[in-house]
Design brief:
It contains 16 helices and six strands. It has helices at about 10-20, 30-40, 45-55, 60-65, 70, 75-80, 85-95, 100-110, 115-125, 135-145, 150-165, 190-195, 210-225, 260-265, 295-305, 310-325; strands at about 135, 175, 235, 255, 275-285, 290-295. The strands form two sheets. Strands 3-6-5-4 form a four-stranded antiparallel beta sheet. Strands 1-2 form a two-stranded antiparallel ribbon. Strand 5 and strand 6 (about 290-295) form a beta hairpin.
Length: about 325
C-alpha cells in the first residue's frame, strides 16, 4: 500500500506526546487480548505485548466519545455543523475533480454521486481532516478503558491488527479519528476489511490517499447494506390530529410500511408506494417539529452512522451540492 509523507505528517510530535502517557502493558484486559490474538490469529506474543506497551491511554479520547454532537444538539443546530456554504462549495469542487470516478461508482454500485460526496464531506471535509490520533491509541484506549463499548472496540482493535498485518503496515503509523475511524470515508477497521475496494484496479486498497478507492469504498458500503437505486430516501409527513405519536422515533429499523403509517396518522403527499418499508421520525426546528417518513435508503445511511441527524445531514448536504452544480435535487 502506498503511504505518502502527508499521511505521517506530524508523527514526530505525536510520538513525543505519547512518551508522556501511560501504555497498556499492565492492563489485564490488554493482556487477555494478547492471549486471544496469539491463540486465534497466531500473533507473536512478545511483539504484541510490546505493542500494547506502546499503545497510549488518551484521556482526550475518553472525553470526546462521551459527547458526540448528534446527542448534544437539536437538529437545527446539528444541521449548521455540516450543511454550510463551505461544505456545499467543497462538495462541488470535490465532485468536479472526481467526476469520472463518481460516475463510474454510481454506475457500478447504484449509489448517487451526491450521496458519496456528502458522506466524504461530513466525515473528513473531503479529505481535509482525516483525524490526528494514532489508530492504535484510539482503539486500545476505548477497548481497555471504556467498559460500555469495550466489546465493540476490542473487536475493532482485532480487525485493525489483522488489517495492518495483511497490508504490511506498521500498526503505530496510521492516524484517524478519536474512535479509530480511517481514511476519506472514516471506515472502522472491520468496515475496511469487509467493504473497502480496489476501485482503480492497481492491486491495493488505499482509502487514505487514493480518492478513487475511497469513493468506490463508500459506494460499495452503501450497496452492500441494501441501497436501492432510484428509490427516495425520506419524505415529509403532516401528522393528523389523531396520529399515534408513540411511533415517532421508536426505532431506526423499518418496522412499518408507508401505508401502515398513513393509517396511524402519518400520511405523505409524495409519490411513494404504500408497501415500502418505513419508519417515522421528527426533527426539532427552531420553531416546532418537522415529521418525516424514513424509507429504505434512509435506513441504509443510518447503517453508516446510527443517527437520524447524521443521515438527514448527509441527505440534505447531497441535495444542496446537486443544486449548487445546477441540477435538481
Amino acid at each position: 500500500m502506498k503511504w505518502t509523507t502527508g499521511l505521517l505528517a506530524g508523527m514526530g510530535l505525536i510520538l513525543a506526546a505519547c512518551a508522556q502517557e501511560p501504555g497498556h502493558g499492565d492492563n489485564p484486559s490488554a493482556r487477555d487480548f494478547v492471549d486471544y490474538m496469539v491463540a486465534e490469529h497466531d500473533f507473536d506474543r512478545e511483539e504484541l505485548l510490546e505493542l500494547m506497551r506502546e499503545a497510549r491511554l488518551k484521556e482526550s479520547i475518553l472525553k470526546a466519545i462521551k459527547r458526540p454532537a448528534e446527542k448534544a444538539k437539536p437538529w437545527y443546530e446539528y444541521r449548521e455543523l455540516f450543511v454550510t456554504p463551505q461544505s456545499i462549495a467543497g462538495g462541488v469542487d470535490f465532485w468536479d475533480r472526481n467526476a469520472k470516478t463518481l460516475e463510474a461508482a454510481e454506475k457500478t454500485y447504484g449509489v448517487p454521486a451526491e450521496m458519496i460526496v456528502a458522506i466524504i464531506g461530513i466525515e473528513t471535509r473531503y479529505g481535509g481532516n482525516m483525524g490526528s490520533y494514532r489508530v492504535l491509541d484510539a482503539l486500545a484506549t476505548l477497548a481497555f478503558n471504556y467498559p460500555r463499548r469495550a466489546p465493540f472496540f476490542t473487536k475493532e482493535l482485532e480487525n485493525y491488527l489483522l488489517l495492518t498485518r495483511e497490508q504490511g503496515v506498521d500498526p503505530t503509523a496510521l492516524v484517524g479519528s478519536y474512535a479509530g475511524a480511517m481514511g476519506f470515508g472514516q471506515f472502522m477497521p472491520s468496515s475496511y476489511r469487509a467493504f473497502a475496494v480496489d476501485f482503480n484496479g492497481d492491486g491495493r486498497v488505499d482509502i487514505w490517499t487514493d480518492t478513487t478507492d475511497a469513493i468506490g469504498s463508500v459506494a460499495n458500503y452503501f450497496a452492500e447494506h441494501g441501497w436501492k437505486p432510484g428509490e427516495p430516501v425520506t419524505v415529509l409527513s403532516q401528522p393528523r390530529p389523531n396520529a399515534d405519536m408513540t411511533l415517532v422515533n421508536d426505532s431506526l429499523d423499518l418496522n412499518w410500511t408507508v401505508g401502515e403509517l398513513a393509517e396511524q396518522g402519518f400520511p405523505t403527499t409524495a409519490q411513494v408506494e404504500s408497501d415500502m418499508a418505513a419508519n417515522v421520525f421528527s426533527l426539532q426546528l427552531k420553531k416546532g417539529k418537522q415529521y418525516w417518513i424514513g424509507l429504505n435508503n434512509f435506513y441504509v445511511i443510518t447503517r453508516y452512522n446510527r443517527s437520524r441527524l447524521y443521515a438527514m445531514a448527509a441527505y440534505e448536504l447531497g441535495r444542496e451540492i446537486v443544486k449548487a452544480r445546477g441540477g435538481k435535487p
